[in-house]
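worker-3 :: picked VOC family protein
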Amino acid sequence: MRQNEEMKVEERLEDITGITCIYVPVNDVYESIKWYQKNLGYQPANIDRVEPGMMTAVLNFPDRNGKLPSPGLRQVVPALFLHKSEEGGGRLRFSWSLDSGKPHAMACFITPRIEELFERFKENGVNILGERVTSGPNITFADPDGNIWEVWQP
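worker-3 :: tokens ->
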């Protein structure tokens, strides 16, 4: 389609309507569930029994009433699919040359209470990799498996 062609908004079809999940490689799914619950508030989906030896699990953020979301076409916050990975199976991160080649987060969460979250992280011994203030305060951190995440308060 050429740039000067007009397309009516009501006629335009959506190809992508959100992100439903992020696949996260972990060494121990059961222990990772507990870590993500304690530190980020994720909860296991009702489809799995949470028990040692699990190979995979789906985690979601509950709403204000503690209810897990129903699957749908529009997902505001993606689910985490924890998968037991092979030894040396890789982690969610990459190095960014603009940041001196340091490992960089693969995804960024949003919070309205970053100071409270930062205190929780410190109390729980979360591996905090950095803090910065750009367009809002950010915290970069790693889960026990070395997956790097960021959280931002707009």
